[in-house]
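SAMPLE LOG
Freezer: B-3
Tube label: C17
Construct: single chain, 176 aa
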Amino acid sequence: MKKTDVPSVLKEMRGKDYQQQLAIDVNVSRETISKYENGRSKLPADIGRAFTKKYDNPKFAITLRNEYTGTGPRWLDGPNVDLHRSSVKEKTIEEMREALDKLEQLSLAKPLCKINGFEKQDIETTLEELVELQTALDHMVAVVCMEADISYTGLWDKHYRYLTSVGYLDGGGTVQ
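STRUCTURE (predicted):
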């Protein structure tokens, strides 16, 4: 089982490229790259964005987001995970159905400050299903992007442009 923290994914992503070339690409020293890859230094946000842009690697993007926020999906690497595109698709559909069922059953009519313990448990269970769906969706997008050679960052940039065009974002929002 491969470790999926930022240093290990960075090393995996670099592959056979030399640390020196990577250092030149992002304007840091080779020693600094070594520190990032060995976990002796935390990867700064601007360097993380540069690596995301250079490698366009969904696994790295998901891992980086989780490492910096402590939230959101983590890259699935356990002994029971199957990241074949068909398996990921089926799991995503399963999670969608479960989340939709819970969401349809959930009542949010009452002000949330007035809910009782049972109602709060229903809300929490529904949110847990939505988080499971989010993990499945992130992996579906990532796996298909990697296998079909579709730009992960390009896909998000296009989405951010759409959100801006319909007034849900106030400009910006692209990967720098």
